[in-house]
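Late entry, evening session. Most of the bench is empty. Finally got around to the prediction I had been postponing all week. Sequence below, unchanged from the version circulated by S.P.
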Amino acid sequence: MPRSLWFIAAFAILLGGFSSSGTLGIVTKSSAEPGAMLKSGRTFKELGPAEGQACRHFVLAIIPWGEGDFAHAVDMALEQKGGDALLNVSVETSLYGFVPIYNIYSFTCTTVKGIAIKFE
């Protein structure tokens, strides 16, 4: 086996990753009351595409830091545009591990993308 293939095989063993994705119709800020906003029939203005990412890191699988949850990723996306909600949202969650057998270092990230809107 050529030397470069050994290097690629070794790197693949040391790095592992998984990803999942999904879609949602509307997502609001974690502090908002979505039912009341929709029932009131309030108009809104489109602010354009927005994207937010939240990551949580782990060392030795026991020392965590960071925010990797969905609500934090949505709040990050809305903060960029000053919006109240996201429409046509896609969500992707990824998990990466370096030397996964021993859990030396790993991190998980949640990424949301959608159209930011502001209620009037």
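Two things to note before I forget:
The two ends are 65 Å apart (CA to CA).
Helices lie at 3-14, 34-39, 70-81.
Will write this up properly tomorrow.
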